[in-house]
Amino acid sequence: MNQMIGDRPILFEPNPQRSDDFSLSQMLDLIADTFGIQIQPQHQDTLKKNLLTHIRALGLSSLNDYCQRLMARNQLISGGTEWQDLISLFTVTETYFFRDQGQISLLKNQLLPELNERKRQLSLTHGNAANGEFYRPTLRLWSAGCSTGEEAYSLAILLKELIFDYHAWDILILGTDINQSAIALAEQGIYSEWSFRTTTPEIKSRYFRSHKKGWEIDPAIRAMVTFQPGNLMQDSYPAYAGSIHDLDLILCRNVFIYFDFNAIA
Ligand SMILES: C[S@@+](CC[C@H](N)C(=O)[O-])C[C@H]1O[C@@H](n2cnc3c(N)ncnc32)[C@H](O)[C@@H]1O
What we know:
By secondary structure, the chain is of the alpha/beta class. It has helices at residues 24-35, 41-57, 63-72, 81-90, 101-126, 150-162, 180-188, 201-207, 219-224, 261-264; strands at residues 2-5, 8-11, 138-144, 170-177, 190-191, 208-211, 214-217, 225-229, 249-251. The strands form three sheets. The chain has a four-stranded parallel sheet. Strands 5-7-6 form a three-stranded antiparallel sheet. Strands 1-2 form a two-stranded antiparallel ribbon. Strand 6 and strand 7 form a beta hairpin.
């Protein structure tokens, strides 16, 4: 069926005379296979509308031409620009600081203090104090599907509050996501009021300063966190080149809820 967007028709269904033309359902399969994400039926109309606008903006005339362009550029590796534009059409990047109060309370009162103690002891037993040997304690935490970074920065703030001598530690707090626009915002570390829905005024004033575009994260907290692109569906782990190994804690919240069953299993 031809869809009118603006003044130019876009062919969205496969051409019946060409058996290898891409259909919307094949596009949905491609998204599920590549990223794990299942677009629910109630969201497919919106995706279709957004795809039509995008296809038109690219000067193409059919969904098939668009899919061919994706494939021809061999940008299946989700870092490609074309794929990034597509990713921004279907990913849900909703997030905020200290989002899940139950999880935050467990981290703050139990998991992080236990890890802190265990890793501190480990560094002492590895070194030989009599010989003046001292091993820096390490902590490696991963926010998988970190979106614009609020979860990873929440971890950094919790650690800074907990570990008085955090400068003497080797701490990795890594945030990864398929959406590179979200990663770019995470790296900027500037947030609107909406990201502070469940942040106490004390924490906000201690770790953020006013900025013309909102609130900017404290540079010391910013420096504790590293962001990089990553696709949970296609990358293999441990990933030594990406520092995703020997992790003490992985947070992966509100990511698998968008995945299809096969991708989770
Ligand atoms: C709703 S946000 C969750 C952010 C944060 N974890 C939280 O709970 O607030 C979901 C994020 O998962 C990312 N995502 C979806 N599929 C992914 C995949 N295959 N690999 C990595 N990230 C993915 C999306 O781009 C999006 O930014």
